[in-house]
Design goal:
alpha+beta; Beta-Lactamase; Helix Hairpins; binds adenosine-5'-diphosphate; elongated; 5-stranded mixed beta sheet; 4 domains
Length: about 450
């Protein structure tokens, strides 16, 4: 270990000579001048020189309380207010230690992470995780940067990364002060994204594999035992068609989702009238509604209702919400679609599009998770309805892009209401009465 010099109270001769060189040279020159011009005798000059040289070469560190000091008294850059301010201002948790591992400075984030940290005490006493302790010990011993990952369990689980960086700070006298900077980085958000990505790939593959397995199973059957059975062929081809449609729909939904995510940061600017969009989607879903024996009731204002939006995405949103009402709330016999504008003068008001059904509704424990990708209350029911589990996730992403929000209310047994809320168009953005608003781009 290179934690301290062999005799911590003694500065090496080479260092002392280097630091005192100017004093010695100046003294020698002054005394020589005095001998030549001032009548000072050589022995007197020699005595004076020896006295000054003796004082200049005293090992300074003898009267310093911290033995592990590389440089002259008053020349410890790590202890300056500038360094303290730098450590204090670091965005991540940061602790600066001296070469022996004693705490010099730490910031607020570090004290939250390790409340036992104290100035001038060894950091090892204040750090809980064995990974941190090992990395710190290695950095002190080897003077090489070290990294460690660990899970901080208090107050909640956080995945942390520690970076230990040995530093050599230059001093005013050309020397250097060795110290160690520890910075802690919270990797939890990154880790969550990574987990979500892995879950997503697993879910998507599973969802694709299921219809694919059904398709290849039926192909085998049609090539084998059912080769000459016309009735079975007809039935199997129908099922195969449904499975292929499901796969296509899943791929469509995945592509839509990634498109919306890619443009999430670009808020649509074009003003769109939502009224014709609602009519278009309701007309398109009439066949499904009559198949399910559900009446769609539409309550729309007479005047246009404008939002800053992307009409293609708004159509997808409407399709998903109304179709869900028809599929999952069919037993209620009706679906009510209501579009409302904020009251005049309500600058912070929202345009609200509510889709209400009177079906079985949704139990409260499912509500917060409905917009997660592939989340379904009843997987079998969703599949039977041709669902992909991506519809509400797409709705949420479309609303995020439009700076809107989705409200879900449900009383089990009485149906569910999904309300898409959009920021109302500002007066200046609204097209004048005669101006035509594009319903479809
Ligand atoms: P899916 O493709 O399965 O319909 P969604 O993301 O659109 O996927 O919906 C997720 C789940 O939410 C559905 O599987 C269903 O269980 C539930 N759900 C959505 N809308 C309704 C509704 N109106 N009534 C009851 N349950 C619903």
């Amino acid at each position: 270990m290179t934690m301290a010099s062999p005799n911590p109270g003694f500065t090496p001769w080479s260092d002392r000579l280097r630091r005192s060189a100017i004093i010695l040279i100046a003294t020698a020159l002054g005394l020589a001048a005095s001998v030549v011009f001032g009548g000072l005798t050589l022995p007197q000059a020699g005595m004076i020189f020896l006295a000054i040289a003796g004082a200049a070469l005293v090992p300074w560190n003898l009267h310093q309380s911290v033995p592990a000091n590389d440089d002259m008294i008053g020349a410890r850059p790590a202890e300056t207010p500038v360094v303290q301010a730098l450590v204090g201002g670091m965005p991540d948790a940061a602790v600066l230690l001296d070469r022996a591992g004693r705490v010099l400075h730490f910031n607020v984030a570090a004290s939250q992470l390790a409340p036992a940290l104290r100035k001038n005490e060894l950091a090892l006493f204040a750090l809980r995780s064995p990974e941190i302790i090992a990395a710190l010990r290695d950095a002190i011993a080897t003077r090489q940067p070290q990294r460690a990952s660990y899970v901080d369990r208090v107050p909640i689980d956080r995945w942390m990364e520690l970076i230990v960086t040995p530093l050599s700070l230059p001093t005013a006298f050309g020397g250097s002060e060795y110290c160690i900077l520890m910075t802690f980085h919270d990797q939890t958000p990154l880790r969550r994204v990574e987990e979500m990505r892995a879950d997503f790939v697993a879910n998507a593959s599973h969802e694709l594999r299921t219809p694919l397995a059904a398709l290849s199973g039926f192909i085998d059957t049609l090539q084998g035992p059912a080769r000459d059975d016309a009735k079975a062929r007809e039935r199997f081809l129908g099922i195969m068609h449904a499975q292929a449609t499901r796969m296509a729909r899943l791929i469509d939904d995945l592509l839509s989702l990634s498109r919306v995510e890619l443009s999430a940061h670009v808020r649509p600017e074009k003003m769109v009238d939502v009224v014709p969009l609602v009519r278009q989607v309701v007309d398109g879903l009439e066949p499904l509604a009559s198949e399910r024996q559900v009446a769609i009731e539409v309550e729309l204002p007479d005047a246009p209702v404008n939002v800053a939006g992307d009409s293609e995405e708004l159509l997808r949103l409407l399709e998903n919400l109304i179709e869900n009402g028809l599929k999952y709330g069919a037993s209620g016999g009706r679906v009510v679609v209501t579009l409302s504008e904020p009251a005049p003068g309500d600058a912070a008001g929202e345009v609200r599009l509510a889709v209400r059904d009177f079906g079985p509704g949704i139990a409260p424990e499912h509500l917060p998770r409905l917009t997660e990708r592939f989340y379904r209350v009843d997987v079998g029911d969703s599949r039977a309805q041709g669902g992909t589990g991506l519809g509400l996730s797409l709705v949420k992403h479309i609303l995020n892009r439009h700076r809107g929000r989705l409200l879900i209310e449900s009383v089990p047994g009485q149906g569910a209401t999904f309300t898409a809320c959009f920021p109302a168009a500002k007066a200046a953005e609204k097209p004048s009465a005669g101006e035509k608003v594009a319903a479809k781009e």
